[in-house]
Write a structure and sequence with these properties.
Strand content: under 5%
Subcellular location: Cytoplasm, Cytoskeleton; Nucleus
Keywords: Cytoplasm, Cytoskeleton, Microtubule, Nucleus, Phosphoprotein
Largest sheet: 2 strands, antiparallel
Structural class: mainly alpha
Biased composition (Polar residues): 486-531
Distance between the termini: 131 Å
Helix content: over 70%
Number of strands: 2
Low-confidence stretches: 1-7, 483-520, 530-574
GO molecular function: microtubule binding
Mean pLDDT: 75
Order of helices and strands: HHHHHHHHHHHHHHHHEEHHHHH
Number of helices: 21
Organism: Glycine soja (Wild soybean)
Shape: flat
Length: 574
């Protein structure tokens, strides 16, 4: 077993361990433990002892490291204080320490030095503050407080790092120089006062000259006060408008205090200097330029808001405040951005009010749109040959088709009611109801005309189908229900037949205006957007162009005449 400590401690530890081992061996003998078991338990006991020793060594290493860090920090602090105070004492503990000295001894020797130098630093700081206060006071009396503050602010950081006696002596020398200069100036002032008091020139011209000089100074002071108040008022206005920070405002705290102050109360030195007024005026110019750029952004933002409101309500926005015009007016300086912004605000309020007054009509327009969309969907649905299949969602489409037919049946009455509401609105407002720049009543009238034309096309289509069915029945009566393949193909080609599910050949009309898309998709206000100029030309073309089914009707009529005029056994002419 290892022995640690002094000689006496080692002997006591060794004797104790030996006694305990003998007692343990006697107990093992009494129990009857084998030599192998004894060796094993002895090795385990030795391993446990080593672990205890190792844990204690680790704790001692950590403690030593902490002491090293503490001593190093104290030595660094001591070196900093000595450098700041200009101390170079050879008897300091940093220079006199020896390697044989323990860490606790080092720490105990350095700590009193550090505390002593801290007190010395505090006393030195007070001496510096007293000297600098006197220097600042006398310098302000001689040179003015503004220039003195600028000079002292640049040396504050350096003074905090250099607190040596040499630096203190420099300040004290400078103070004595200023005190001497102040004394000399006071003597000169007293000499001048004595000379003035002893002067015998008390004529009227001298008094008048002094009075005029005093009057000019008073007028100049009053002018500067008014000018500064005007500048400060503009500053407050721009600060509130631009939401300036406190840091920006604090830079002008000295001059902002004159607002609401009488002339007799303005006594602070340098507040009415030309330098201070020019500095405030420059800040006003800077904020004014910044205001112009931000006001331009705000104008564009409000204009976009106006255009969005007009787009949603289908109102034409006022072109006088368009983005391009507004940008040109602001850049040219012809219009104040604030006035332009106020104008746009009024237009937004007007647009919102007009949108509210149009709401009853626009709600009916939306219902009309929904009905027209259902009608378009039903037309496409009816053209689907697989609409009755048992696929997924077929029953939903059937229900929708049934509901759509009911809704479509209400469209004529819906349009008439919308026209009446629009006319009533126009009578009340004494102006036309425009929808994207086009009068809504004109759109509705055109829609009714197009719808009537569509219904007429459907009626003619039904009449054509009846005539074709009549032709087919007559041909079947003359040549039988099963014509030859040659006749069947020729007849189908001529009349565009196609077979249905039961083998009969019902006629199919050629593509006419109904299926061509010109009248099946009726014009609504949405279809007016972007093509108002070409709409009436399109309507005139539809009203004058011949419909395709008329040509089909003529062909079928000629075929019917050829059938009636031919012999019973002769085939129809192709």
């Amino acid at each position: 077993m290892l022995a640690i400590g002094g000689h006496g401690t080692s002997i006591r530890t060794s004797s104790t361990c030996t006694a305990l081992l003998r007692e343990l061996e006697q107990i093992w003998n009494d129990i009857g433990e084998t030599e192998v078991e004894k060796d094993r338990m002895l090795m385990e006991l030795e391993r446990e002892c080593l672990e205890v020793y190792r844990r204690k060594v680790d704790e001692a290493v950590n403690t030593k490291a902490r002491f090293h860090q503490t001593v190093a920090a104290k030595e660094a602090e001591l070196a900093t204080l000595m450098a700041a105070l200009g101390e170079h004492d050879i008897h300091s503990p940093i220079k006199t320490e020896k390697r044989s000295v323990s860490l606790k001894q080092k720490l105990a020797s350095i700590t009193p030095w550090v505390e002593e130098l801290k007190k010395k630093k505090d006393e030195r700081l007070k001496q510096f503050e007293d000297v600098k206060a006197q220097i600042e006071k006398i310098s302000g009396e001689i040179f003015g407080f503004h220039s003195v503050n600028n000079a002292l602010s640049s040396t504050t950081v350096e003074d905090d790092q250099d607190l040596s006696l040499r630096r203190l002596n420099e300040y004290q020398t400078h103070l004595r120089t200023l005190q001497k200069e102040k004394s000399d100036r006071l003597q000169k002032v007293l000499q001048c006062v004595n000379e003035v008091e002893q002067s015998t020139n008390i004529s009227n011209s001298t008094l008048e000259g002094l009075e005029q000089a005093i009057l000019k100074l008073k007028i100049e002071r009053k002018t500067r006060i008014q000018k500064l108040k005007d500048v400060v008022a503009k500053l407050f206005e721009l600060w509130n408008l631009m939401d300036s920070s406190k840091e920006e405002r604090n830079c002008f705290m000295k001059i902002t205090s004159i607002v609401g102050t009488s002339e007799s109360e303005i006594t602070e030195r340098g507040v009415l200097s030309t330098e201070m007024i020019e500095k405030a005026s420059a800040e006003v110019d800077r904020l004014a330029k910044l205001k112009a750029s931000r006001m331009k952004e705000l104008v564009f933002k409000k204009r976009s808001e106006l255009e969005e409101i007009c787009r949603l309500t289908h109102i034409e926005p006022d072109t006088s405040t368009a983005a391009e015009k507004a940008s040109a007016l602001i850049d040219s300086g012809l219009v104040d951005p604030s006035e332009l912004l106020a104008n746009i605000e009024e237009q937004i309020i007007k647009a919102k009010g007009e949108a509210l007054s149009r709401k009853e009509v626009t709600d009916r327009i939306d219902k009309w749109f929904a009905a027209c969309e259902e009608e378009n969907w039903l037309d496409k649905y009816n053209q689907d040959d697989n609409r009755y299949s048992a696929g997924r969602g077929a029953h939903i489409n059937l229900k929708r088709a049934e509901h759509a037919r009911i809704t479509i049946g209400k469209i004529p009455a819906m349009v008439d009611n919308l026209i009446n509401k629009t006319l009533a609105w126009e009578d009340e407002k004494k102006t036309h109801f425009l929808y994207d720049g086009v009068r809504l009543v004109s759109i509705l009238d055109d829609y009714k005309l197009a719808r009537q034309q569509k219904e007429e096309d459907k009626r003619r289509h039904r009449d054509l189908k009846k005539m074709q069915d009549l032709l087919l029945n007559q041909k079947e009566a003359m040549y039988g229900s099963k014509p030859s393949p040659r006749k069947n193909n020729s007849f189908r080609k001529t009349n565009s037949y196609r077979a249905n599910g039961n083998g009969s050949m019902p006629p199919t009309p050629r593509r006419n205006s109904l299926s061509g898309g010109t009248t099946s998709e009726l014009l609504t206000p949405r279809s007016y957007s972007g093509r108002q100029n070409g709409y009436f030309k399109e309507m005139r073309r539809l009203s004058t162009a011949p419909l395709n089914f008329v040509a089909i009707s003529k062909e079928d009529t000629m075929s019917y005449a050829s059938l009636c005029g031919s012999e019973p056994d002769s085939p129809p002419q192709v």
